[in-house]
Structure formats: C-alpha cells, structure tokens
Please model this.
Amino acid sequence: MTAAGWIACAGGGATPEGEGSAAAAGAGGGAAGGRVGASGGPGSAGAGGMDQPGTGGAQSGGITGSASGGTDAGGNPGQGGQGGQGGNLGSGDPADAAPPNDAGAGDSSAGPMRMSEACGKGVAAPKEGLHEIMVGNMVRKFFFRVPSSYDGKKPWPVIFAFHGAGNKSAAWFDTNTDLRPKTEEKAVLLFPEGALRRPGNLSWVHMSPENVLFVDAMMKWLGDNVCIDLGQVFAAGQSSGGYMAMTLGCQRGNVFRAVATSSGGILDPGACTGSPAAIWMRTGKADSASGHKSVLDTRDFWVKAKGCSAEPPKAVDPAPCVSYSGCQGGVKVIFCDDPGGHGWPGYMTDGIWKLFTSTAL
Model:
C-alpha cells in the first residue's frame, strides 16, 4: 500500500453519519487524495475523487508547498526550531516519497517539555471563540478556548476535540459535553469543524487528507500565537470525530501524545508516523452493530500495530475499561466496552484526562 489517505474501513466497519443539532456549515469540495505532507519534510498530494485518495501528484516540501489537487498548508514548529519555509515543487511518484518523519512537533515520545515559539513573548492570547483559517483554497473553522490564568509564559497542554457527523459543528464540544467545563482551566482547547459532505452534514470521514492538513495548519497557528507544550498535544473525538482522532494517532503519531475515541473507529491510514504514548477506545454495547464493531476492529488494529501481549487485558479505572500489556515502547492501549449507546459517556472526560496527564514527560 502506498502512503495514501484513508481508503476503507478497517474490518469493514461502517462510518457514522447523521447525528446532531443545528450547526454552521463548513465549506465543501471534492476530496484530494494522497498521503499528506508535513512541515519541513517531503510529502505528496494528488488529485482524487470525493472520498477516495487520488494517485500521483507532485511532491512538495515545507509549510506552504502545494501540489495539484491538494494543498500542503500549515505545519508546526519542529523540535528545537522552526518548521520549514515554503517548498519547491518536485516531481516523482508519491509512492517513492519519504513519509513525513517530522509533523512539526517532533517525536511525541521523546524529550522534555517543548515550548512553542509564542512562549515568553508576552503576547496576549488570541480572542476566544470562533476562528477561521485558510487551508489551501478552503476556509476552515474552529473554536478556541484558553485558561483564564494564561499569561503567555507558561506552556499549556492542548486538546483537540472533534465533533460527530451530521449537523454538529465546531460549537458541539464547546456546549454539549462536559469536556470544556472540566478541562478549560487545565488546557488550551480547540474544537475544529468538519468538512461539508452534503447540505447539513459535516463529517470527518470526508476529505480526509485535507482534514489532516487542517490540523497541521491549526498546530502552526497555535505555535505562532499561543504558549503551548508541544509534548502535550492530545486529540479526542466522538463518532465521526473519533475516526479523525484515531487517524491522527497514526498519521501524526509524532505530534499527538495521546488520542481517544468514543464510538468512532479507524479507517486504513497507510503507514503510521511516530507513535502516541497512549490510545483510548470506547464503545457501547447498545450502539448499532456496525458502530460497535468499528471500535472492536480499531482495538484489534492498535493491539496488533503496537505488538501488545496476547495475555488477557487487565481491568483499570474507570470501569469497565481494560489495559493491554507488553505494548511496544510502553504505549498504553485502553479499551472500554460499556453498556451504553453511541453518545459521549459520563466517565469519558475524566478518564481520558487522567490518561492524557499520565503521559507527561
């Protein structure tokens, strides 16, 4: 398999759609295929169809290099320095292009606290609320929240939280779960908005390469404007957003220290880059058969990918979660199968925050 974008559901699990309440619609557009590039390193982008990755495409490097059918927009500061500046278009088969070994924040499993470029400048945090950012030729949206004690000097952890599909928007995690009230004084929060799949339907399993580039662009924006700890960047998601969080755990495993999903599986992301220190997967027995199976398949994917022991997993807090042992590099793989349904359960926020903070360097 070439280092392409998302292709098919692991184990044939269905992707979730059709959840939600009223939302602001994001910009639409066809999906551009190809494995996304990373700041300061080579990548590839190609022209593709609506949901499938394209083939071919020009090789591009740096923060603003671009290729036909996809834009390598955004990027993050690299370990010990700035991300690459720009990039000259190259040629060649993207299958021969090196995968991004530095997605801007360095290896998430190595080194002490790494402060973003904005730290120590005494610059006030950007305003809270809705922000817009250009990613290629699309305007993408996200909600931004910062602790009240933010002073531009102390580096803060970051949580990206990705909403479910349907009419949910960037505001969903801001107002509809306990994640914001329980963590807004502990971390910088970003609630990105998915791409418009069809009228009234925002999704993270659509335009997948561009969605990863969107995250790269938000990381660059954070690094330039907010004092954050680049070694404590986390992702969580509900349903469709869980698919996004799991994909970032693979394609940006050297950026995200830990990733978590509720009722969202994983799509085949190609070869993984780096590794998060912890992976949390939650599903409910009362969810649809396909939804439940998608998370079971995701558990199997990560247990195999991380070389975890074949021994039965051990019970951990909160119940009914279990932890797999013997995983490569000491990666924590947590799986929770509760009696509930598709929604964000009451124990989720406390559980993932405890896991996130347990990975502190």
The radius of gyration is 19 Å.
